[in-house]
Amino acid sequence: MIGLLSIPTWIVHFSSVIEWSLAMILFYTIGKRMNNVWFKRMPLVMIPYMLSGFCALIYHITEDTWVGLNELQSYLTFFGSCSFALWAFLFLRSVTDTSKSKGASRG
Question: Would 68 be classed as within a structural domain?
């Protein structure tokens, strides 16, 4: 056991942060290839969750002694959820606006 966590738990923590990083790169790359501004903006919305993951890692590396990190992680997760909700709302609104304008131009 390293610190207060077992090795499999550490593997899950680090792989989650790496996976999130790769997802951010993938979203931006797909958005750039498709010339889709919403997919290119998605990594910006993912930053609070990434920072929350780093807070969790640092919190456990310091053997759960930095109590403020636990609270910061909670706020970052909440802000990340609000960011995703706003992104999804704006994305869906842009999709419906685009489909309405295409339907209006046909008729």
Answer: yes
Q: Is 82 inside a domain boundary?
A: yes
Angle of helix 37-61 relative to helix 7-34, nearest 10 degrees, comes to 160
Residue 1, domain member (yes or no): no
- The answer to whether the beta carbons of residues 84 and 76 sit under 8 Å apart is no
Residue with the two structure tokens 């706020």 = 75
What is the pTM (predicted TM-score) of this model?
Answer: 0.80
Domains identified in the chain, total number: 1
Calpha distance 23→87 (Å, rounded): 16
4-17 pLDDT, tens digit per residue, is 788 888 899 899 99
Contact 27, 42 (CB under 8 A): yes
User: Rounded to 5 degrees, what are φ and ψ at 58?
Assistant: -65, -40
